[in-house]
Amino acid sequence: MKEICVRKEDLELLYEYALSHCKEVCPQERNPRTCLAMVKIGKLIGRYPPCVKSYGYFEKSFLKRMLKEIEIREGKRIKEFIKEMKKRNPRSLQEYEDSIDSEFIYNILEILEGEDDA
Q1: Residue at a domain's end among 56, 75, 101
Q2: Are residues 118 and 82 part of one domain?
Q3: Which in 7, 37, 52, 86 has the greatest CB count within 10 A?
Q4: Which domain holds residue 110?
Q5: What is the C-alpha end-to-end distance of the chain, expressed in Å?
Q6: Cα separation of 23 and 51, whole Å?
């Protein structure tokens, strides 16, 4: 991967601009890879996206616990639950939230695992 140098002030401006996207369209339109980039940049500049605490600063152990809680609540494995939610509409607000979070967290973990292997 090619590295580039950017002035911190410019990075902060870009981050602020991207953060407005987070505030306006998340969670309906979010890209796990972009979210991880925002968290990494936030760590560098000392300003995190608003969701970072809810997702345990995107630490793998925290995210895995979140998936386990969803599995327990929904009574099935995450992959099965995600697949089911793609076929039908959620039946409750909790199921709706779980469907959004489960797919997002699952994808985040796949990206993090891939980074560990690289």
Answers
A1: 56
A2: yes
A3: 52
A4: 59-118
A5: 11
A6: 9
Report the candidate in 3, 12, 18 with the shortest Cα–Cα distance to residue 45.
Answer: 12
Condensed to tens digits (0 to 9), the pLDDT of residues 79-105 reads 999 999 999 999 999 999 999 999 999
pLDDT score of 23: 87
Q: What distances in angstroms separate CA 57 from CA 86, 88, 108, one per listed residue?
A: 27, 31, 12
Q: What is the dihedral of CA 5, 8, 14, 20, to 10 degrees?
A: 150
**Dist. CA 14–CA 77, nearest whole Å:** 38
Same domain membership, residue 33 and residue 73: no
Question: Model confidence over 35-76: pLDDT tens digits?
Answer: 999 999 999 999 999 999 999 999 999 999 999 999 999 999
Same domain, 19 and 70: no
Rounded-to-integer distance, Cα 98 and Cα 91, Å: 11
What pLDDT, on the 0 to 100 scale, is given for residue 118?
Answer: 62
For residue 25, the model assigns a pLDDT of: 87
